[in-house]
Amino acid sequence: MASDKVSRLLALLQVLLDAGHPLTAREVRARVPGYSEDDDAFRRTFERDKNELGEILGHPVRAEPVPGTDPPVDGYRLRADEAYLADPGLTPEERRALAVAASAVRLAGIDPSGGVTKLGAGVAEAGGRASPPTELPVDDAVLALFEAVAERRTATFAYNGHDREVHPLRLRFTKGRWYLTAWDTGRDGERQFRLDRLGGPVRTGPRHGFAPRPVTSVDALDEPWAMGDGPVTPVRVRIDAPQVDAARRAAPRADVEDEADGGVVLTLGVRNVDALVGFVLGFLDEAEVLDPPEVRARLLDHVRLRLTPVGGDR
Topology of domain 3-82, per CATH? Predict the structure, then answer.
C-alpha cells in the first residue's frame, strides 16, 4: 500500500474517531488531507477508503443521519468501541520475526513485551533470546515528542537560540541521533530538528491541537544538505560517469540531467552548504559544483584549506 494512501487512511480513522457527531462527506474532505478537489474523484476515493477501513476494523463504516438536517443527510463517525483492530492474521513465522525485532531493539527503560504479547508473539516466539536487547537512548524530550506525535500535541522548545512552536509529525532515530520532522508554525514550513540540539525542555499542548498533515520531506534525513532553516538554494553538481549510480542513490530527490559522456548534472535543493561540500568531496575529482558561484567558491576554499600544510606557506 502506497505511503500516501496509508497516511490518508490513518487520518480518516482519526478524524472519524474524534468526531462528536456524524460528519458529512464534505466535512470529511475538509479535515482529511489527500483527497481530490474534484467531486467525482473524491467520491470514488472516499468510497474505496471507507471499504478498506471497514475491512481493517472488521466491520463496515456505517452511515447515519446527521442530526438537524432536512432533508436528511448521511454522515460518518466511529465510536471507540468500534475502533479495535481485527486480528492481523500473522503467521507463526511473522509472529516470530516480530518477537525477534522487539527483543533485539527497544527504547531504554521501556519494555515492549506487553504490546507484542497482544499480537500473540511472546519471548518463546523469539526462540528464547537470552542476550540483552540494543536500547535506543531516550530522554524526557524524546518521550514528550513521542506523545506529541501520537496525540497531535503542539510542541514548543528552544532551538539554535530561538523559540520554536511546531506540529510534530514524525520521530526517527538514525546515525546515532534522534530527529524530529515537524511543521514549524513560525516559519510556515516543514523542518527537521536534531533533538540533541534542543535548548531546554519540551512543552506540549492539549491532545488534537492541530489537524493531521502528511510528511513531505521523506528523504531529508538522508540528504543532510536539505536540513536547516535558511532558504533553499538550487545547486547544480556535475558527476562523472563512473560515479553516477552512487550519486543517484545518495541524492534520490535530485533533478537529473543526463550528459552525452555518461555523466549527469544533479540539481539539489540546498539549505546547508557545508553538508553539500562534504557530499561533493566524497566523489573526489569526479564531481564539481557548477553553480551558483558562491557555493562553488565555498567548495574551492575548503579544498585549498585541506591542501595547505599546517604551518606551511600560503
Answer: Arc Repressor Mutant, subunit A (1.10.10)
